[in-house]
Amino acid sequence: MFQPKQMSKLLIVASKQQLDPVITELYHQNIFHIDDFVEKGDEQWEGFKIGMPMTGADTISSNLVKIRSIASAFGIGSDQVEDSEKARIQELKRSIEQDLPAIAEEVEKLLSKRSKLEATAKEYEQKIEALRPFIEAPFPMELLRGYDAISCIGGTVKSQPTINVPHEIWEKPLKTGMFIVIAVRNTDLSAVEKSLLDLQLQKVTIPEETGYAPAIIADYEQKIAGIKQEIEALNAQMAVIRDKHKYFLMSSEELLTADIEQAEAPLRFATTDLAFSVVGWVPTEQVTKVYENLDRVCAGKVYVTELEIEDRNDGPPVEYNNPDFSHPAELFMDLYSRPKYTEVDPTLLMSIVYPLMFGLILGDVAYGLILLAMSFGLRSMVKGNEAGNQLMDILRNCSISSIIFGVIFSEFLGFSLPWAPLWFSRHISIGVAAGAEHHASAIPQLLVVSIWIGILHITLARIWGALNASRMDHGHHRSLKMYANIGWILVMWGIIVLIWSKFPIMLMPDLTQMPELAGGLNVATIAGAVMLVLGVAFIARENALDLMEIPTIISNVLSYTRLIAVGLSSVAIAMVTNFIAIGLIINPQLENLTPIGIILIIVGVVVFLIGHAGNTALGILGGGIHPLRLHYVEFFTKFYRGGGKKYNPFGMIRRLTELKE
Amino acid sequence: MAAEAVAVEVAAAAASAAGLKAVGAGLAVGLAGVGSGLGEMGIGAAAMGAVAENKDMFGLALLFTVLPETIVIFGLVVALLLMFQ
């Protein structure tokens, strides 16, 4: 808890004859995180070289490339295939050898045919585009070329050109400027072009076609339609092939991926001519399993030993070690950065506090129910996507918390539930609520509660900061850092005690009545001042520049008031929506029903729905982003370092193929 | 007569005080919102660029983008205190 899974560093050494069984067994177990071997010229690893892929790797990878290219042409992914049955590996291997070349050839033929057709269609479209300016021309296209002494220029110009040499011109006005075709003697060509360039001539090439432009365009369009039909037919043909081979393609993709990963594993090992060695990480609780199984498959001809971990901070890969209900919050941790091996992993706390904060902000039974329905409804959309599922789990937890806070605050779409708020009321006097029974709101109290949350949250963060320093830093720096964190706590609490000793604040201890000491200062004032000074000294010892940050203590704590402020804004929007829809539009009409009144009532209902839909969306955004920000900015910056390596074991979870041959 | 006039005057003064409070609350939220918006404008644009380059930056980008948001929250809190205390 609050710690990643404990890892052990293992060294495996064996002769090269054992390479195959060792790799197969490790891949099968799917728990060994390989540390890639790098040739650095270490003395310790002298004589070792990076290994070569196993024989057959090139055939496997060429088959895999074939399958993947077919799959991408068809747009199939493994999540589109049902995993109700598992393919037998022997059969699959046989059909990869026998059927795959034929399928690949067929698909390639169809694909190349299709791309050829598409290219032709594109070409025709370009020709149509080139002909478009000539649609209204009163001459066939062949008249524009084929002369010895005359040239034609076509293009757009800004305004009417004046040309002083013998010429013939056809103009068509455009939205800006005009399109012209001019025929001039070759001897005058350059002079005319020059004068046209002054009018910003943009030349077009004159299409080499025969006949009037509209007729040619119609002809091309017909051809394109024909090509499109052919493409459709090809697509239908491909869809048939796709459905027929979908399962085969995806299951063999899985099989070959597993094969290629194993065949290329020696690239991550250190090898000599006769032996190999590999270093990697295994969760400590599973070390004996690795020992026993490797011993079994190699009949004892393998040496496995546990190594000393040199760099505890950066060495081991990090795998979360949380109770099940905390898994969704790992999404937020990975979004920020995975914790380092030695540091405090705050996932568990976040998985509890985040939904609570969300509920405190939204706190409405109806919105909670809508979000709960959404979290179940959208689940089919994120099928097979781990992050999506985690997000839905978070949404579910948050909506349950919103419902609970809704019951406490007695809120339902901004209306009051039949009971008075069980805790401080957030009801504000807007519109309908103003007239009806109204519970006096206790907003200042709620703000103080949120400040309390901030004080405790930040104090915990600083305690963890000291803990992290004690675990991760060394020597003199370590104690300085620990004291600095304690210093921050002292400064914060010193300021708080000072404030308490001067001003009585509701829901907080009143220290103004403490016995006075010298000069009108009471005990608490002096204690607070001492804490402040001591804290400042601790911080300054680590880094005097950090003292600049002291004002952020106050802004960070006050930042937690957003929990109430954002929540109140959503309450206000809900109440205003109710007031406009019901108080201003529906109720006056209900008193005196007329045909127009009924339309207005419908309008009122629409306003009601749109207002609450918008408020739900804002509720997700506000309720989701603000607690996240409080964690990332106010909480994590005090202690969290992050940057841990992800634990990525060698192996795969087979979905479509059988485990063993 | 005199007493009535005084009562009317007192009521008018109270109403104008309440009105000024509401104006102050509105200004607090509105101006703070403008400030936050100005702050987030540049950060948001840069953050989008960073995320487009490297998806892993998302968490950090979000963090930086919402940093100035505290300002508007303070505005909101001041407004709430004005209206409800």
Secondary-structure map:
The complex is a heterodimer of chains A (661) and B (85).
Chain A: E1 7-15, H1 19-29, E2 33-35, E3 49-50, H2 57-74, H3 89-98, H4 100-131, E4 150-157, E5 167-173, E6 178-185, H5 189-198, E7 202-204, H6 213-263, E8 270-271, E9 275-283, H7 287-297, E10 302-307, H8 330-336, H9 347-362, H10 365-377, H11 386-409, E11 411-412, E12 415-416, H12 432-435, H13 443-472, H14 475-502, H15 523-542, H16 550-559, H17 562-591, H18 595-639
Antiparallel strand pairs in A: 1-9, 1-10, 2-9, 3-8, 4-6, 4-7, 5-6, 8-9, 11-12
Helix pairs in contact in A: 1-7, 2-4, 2-6, 3-6, 4-6, 9-11, 9-17, 9-18, 10-11, 13-14, 13-16, 13-17, 13-18, 14-15, 17-18
Chain B: H1 2-53, H2 58-66, H3 69-84
Helix pairs in contact in B: 1-2, 1-3
Give a description of the structure:
- The complex is a heterodimer of chains A (661) and B (85).
- Chain A has helices spanning 19-29, 57-74, 89-98, 100-131, 189-198, 213-263, 287-297, 330-336, 347-362, 365-377, 386-409, 432-435, 443-472, 475-502, 523-542, 550-559, 562-591, 595-639; strands at 7-15, 33-35, 49-50, 150-157, 167-173, 178-185, 202-204, 270-271, 275-283, 302-307, 411-412, 415-416.
- Chain A is of the alpha+beta class and 661 residues long.
- In chain A, strands 1, 2, 3, 8, 9 and 10 form a 6-stranded antiparallel beta sheet that branches. In chain A, strands 5-6-4-7 form a 4-stranded antiparallel beta sheet, with helices on one face. Chain A has a two-stranded antiparallel ribbon with strand order 11-12.
- In chain A, a hairpin with a 4-residue loop joins strand 5 (167-173) and strand 6 (178-185).
- The longest helix of chain A has 51 residues, at 213-263.
- The model of chain A is unreliable at 431-436 (pLDDT under 50).
- Chain B has a single domain (2-84), classed as F1F0 ATP synthase subunit C (F1FO ATP Synthase).
- The longest helix of chain B has 52 residues, at 2-53.
- Chain B has helices at residues 2-53, 58-66, 69-84.
- The mean pLDDT of chain B is 85.
- The interface between A and B is medium-sized, with 23 and 17 residues.
